[in-house]
Structure formats: C-alpha cells, structure tokens
Amino acid sequence: MAPISIKRILISESVDPCCKKILQENGIQVTEKQNMSKDDLIAEIKDYDGLVVRSATKVTADVINATGNLQIIGRAGTGVDNVDVDAATKKGIIVMNSFNLTHKAITVAWSTPVFIVLMISQFMGAEMYGKILGIVGLGRIGKEVATRMQSFGMKTIGYDPITPPEVTATWGVDQMSLEQLWPQCDYITVHTPLMPSTAGLLNDTSFAKCKKGVKVVNCARGGIIDEDALLRALESGQCGGAGLDVFVEEPPKNRALVNHPNVISCPHLGASTKEAQARCGQDIALQIVDMVMGKGLVGAVNAQVLASTFSPGSHQWIKLGEAVGVVLKSCTTSKQPFSQVQITTQGDCLKGSSGYMTSAVMVGLLTDVSKSCPNLVNSLTLAKESGIKVTRNHSEGLTQGDSCEVEISVNGSSYRATGSVQGGAPVLLELNHSVFRQPVSLTGNLLFFKAAASPQLLPSVTGLLATAGVEMESFSAPAARSGDQWFCVGLSSLLGDLGALKPLVKEAAQLSV
Questions:
Q1: Catalytic residue among 232, 268, 394, 416
Q2: Which of 4, 317, 479, 494 stands 20 to 30 A from 302 (CA)?
C-alpha cells in the first residue's frame, strides 16, 4: 500500500516526551494542547491528520465528524474506551493503540490461563484438555490467549466483527457468530474494548444460551459482562465460576459479586508504572512512524485489513480492485443501485489478499455514490449500511493465473469484470463476458461502449471523437466477433456528451482512473 501521509499530529494529553520527539524526528509536526473542552477539541481537530490521546480525551462521534483530514487516532495505551470506534470506522479513520506485546498485553494474555487454572483448582478440579474456550474479541490479545490455551489442549473458537475468519483460522481459532458460540463454550473470555456494542455483552439473555456451569473471565474492561447478570448466573448455577480483574467501578463496590465463593478477583493495575507510561508514548509514536514510512501497520483495532497491504506489489492490486469497481459502477450507472457483490481472487499471488481486495473493489463501487468518502477502512461498513451484500472467496490453480473477478447484481441482472496486474500495472481482461484481445490498461481516460462488431464501427467512433476534439490514444477490441461486445478506447480527455454515441452503440460509459 502507498504510505499514508501524516504531516500534522495533535497530542491532547500528557504523554511521555519521547512520543513528540520520535514523531518530530521523522518529519511530523506536533502540537501539544492539554485540557481542552469538547468544543475546543472540535474547533482544533480540523487542522490535523492525526490525534494522540491517553484516556482523558473523549473522542466522541461529534469530535470525529468535525474532522477534516484526520486519518489516525492513536491511543497511547491499551483499550480504546474513550474513542468512538464505530464513528471513526465509518469516517475511514484508523484507530490504533499501543501494541507492544512484551509489556501489558502479554500480561493480559497470561491472565486468562491463570484465572482458568485457579478456577479449576479452587472450584471443580476438572481438566482443561478437550474443553472449549470461546474468545470474544480476536485482536492481538485474543490471538495470544488462543495460542496459550491451545498449549493446554483446549479447542478455541471465537467471535470478532472485524478480524477476517481466514486470518483467525491461521491461529487455530474457528470464528462464528455469538449465537453459535454461546452454547458450545465450557469457558468464555472477553478481549474487546468497552463501547455501546460491547457493553453488557454477557447478560441474562446470553448466559441463558450458555452451557450450565460455564466459566467466564474478564481481563478487558469492566461492563462488558453485566455484573448483576453475572451474580444472578452464579447464584443459580448457570455460571460455574468467574475470574475478574476489571469492574464497572474500581475499586469494586458490588461486594456481593467480589465476595461470591465462585469468584476470583484481583486489582486492575494496567499500565500504572512510570516505565509503562513511557513505553506507551514510545510505542504509539513508533507505530505511527512505521505506518507513515510504509513499513507496516500494527495495533489497529478497526483496520486489520490494512495489515497485509504493506507487502510488495500490494499497491497495484489495490489500484486494480478500485479501478474494476469504478468500471463496473460506470457501466451500470443507469441500472443502479446494486444489491450484491461477489469478489473472487485467483492464484497464489492473491492468496490471503481477499480482504483488502474486497475493500478496494467496494471503494471503487461506492466512490461518488456514498455520502461518506470510501476508503479501505470504511468501505465494507458503508456497503452494509447501504444494504449491499458482499461475499468473497479465493480460488487456486485456475488457468487465468493471478486475477480478481467481480460480479455485481442489479435488479436481478449480473455484471462482471475481471482484471489482473501485468507488467506492474492494473489491466482489465474481461467485461460482461467480452474478453479483450489485448488487456485494457486501467489508467487515464477510458471510454467503454457496447456494440456489434462491424467494419464501420471504429472509423465512425474515431470520426465522432475527432469532431469533439478528442484524440484516441488506444483501442481494445474483444476477441469474439459475433453479437454485441464491449470495446474500450483510451482518450486524451473525456467526451463532453456521451449522447453523440447513441446512434453508433447500445451502451456507453466513460471514466478517469
């Protein structure tokens, strides 16, 4: 992926000085303004590409919607409770927190097995081998928890609305919906941020769907498990035990829960040392710099799809996905809106890349259609809000080699385009069953038209372009010579009026890539 341009960053809280120093040493302008009110932050944030916060700054939807070119919100610490991640995602803004697994995150990753072992030894004396652990939240800590619990012989299943199932499958985690997960688990551990969609995630209703005697662990944020519902489940025996180091109020005031004989609890210390504070500032600065320099992306809580876009050659494939989306959107303008999109990647080169290719295609399809500005972070969210069903798959060993095929459904009809990257540049191989003799270079001004092949077609189109003062720079014809087929012409500039083509062609569309 092309490096993300971050020129100005606002630090709105007291962060270790090393954060500012690292950012400035890498050419990023930094402004520090603390103790701003919400209105002050809304007025200030319009001028920045990035925002770094700790926990006091509340980055609400109002703040996010007031941004102009904000591309990243960096939380110097773990958790993003003070950031409206959903609003940031919809706006296409990356939300990142400190990633360093050698510090707090690794401690949290060990807390789950410790709590489970303590519950086993104190409450029931059962084996861990063969038991099913449900992991709700499959970010970096969820991944580390899965690895550790698998070493005890536990089967790991999980749920995450962002991390793709094919990614978690490589960790040995079978991803599924919460409705499928609840009844299977012997143990449940949560590793999500606290936000409206996760508050009270484990409640009376979800406990009722679990196995009787299920054990739960919360080392993430107080409030993800409804404490009153947990106490009721413990008292009824529906929940067989709980390990907690976070609470809605800290220190906890719900003594009936803390003192329950089937609860093991400990204080929530987090990054409460001078060394940890310094590391948080250092880590978030280095993560931002690595992203800007195109080295990689770590710690993103809402943009895992971008992690694989830093591999060599990915930039051209992303350009291809966006271009194919634009072509299909342009060639079906009169028939929109579309209801379904199917993306199929093929070949070894794109193995594991279906995530960012799908997002890239949706960027092309939604550009100038959605009210929001689509990018790789928000395109799937915008598609879902628009009622578009998006599916994807990957095929290997097919004759076309490395390619991306996109099929959209509009009012019961299907439209398809297939592209690839050849010679380091994106090209179109096929459009609506018209296979081009020479691949169409997806760059510059392009005119697509559908017509029956005839000796008079090309001279007629050339004459019309000349009359309009437009030069023909390239011409791509279909391999088939019978029936209506799609043709492509590279233009020096776009035509002022496509209506002039109506006597010559059945359909026409033009676009700039």
A1: 268
A2: 317
10 Å CB burial of residue 463 (0-12, 13-18, 19+) is: exposed
Extract the tokens encoding 229. 């519902």
CA distance 132 to 128: 9
CA distance 36 to 16: 18
Place of tokens 């299943």: 157
When pLDDT is cut at 50, 70 and 90, the band that residue 102 belongs to is very low
Residue with tokens 């609003």: 87
268 assigned to active site: yes
Marked catalytic residue, from 25, 179, 235, 250: 250
Identify the residue whose tokens are 């390239």.
474
The residue from 54, 103, 140, 221 that is catalytic is: 221
| For residues 205-231, average pLDDT | 94
Token code pair at residue 9? 């960053």
The reply to whether 250 belongs to the active site is: yes
Structure tokens at 262: 């089937």
Residue 385 is a catalytic residue? no
Angle at 203 between CA 199 and CA 206, to 5 degrees: 115
Tell me, what's the pLDDT at 428?
Answer: 97
| DSSP 8-state class, residue 349 | G
Instruction: List phi, psi (to 5°) of 416.
Output: -135, 145
d(CA 371, CA 388): 15
Buried b (16+ CB within 10 A) or exposed e, 307-327: bbbbeeebbbbbbbbbbbbbb
Q: What is the pTM of this model?
A: 0.75
DSSP 39-56: HHHHHHGGG-SEEEE-SS
Q: In this structure, are residues 341 and 389 in contact, taking their beta carbons and an 8 Å threshold?
A: yes
Give the three-state DSSP class for 357: helix
Q: 3-class SS at 510? A: strand
Q: What is the pLDDT of residues 262-300, one digit of tens each?
A: 999 887 655 555 666 667 889 999 999 999 998 989 889
d(CA 37, CA 33): 11
Question: d(Cα 349, Cα 332) in Å, to the nearest integer?
Answer: 29
Location of structure tokens 């004459």: 463
> What one-character DSSP code corresponds to residue 67?
-
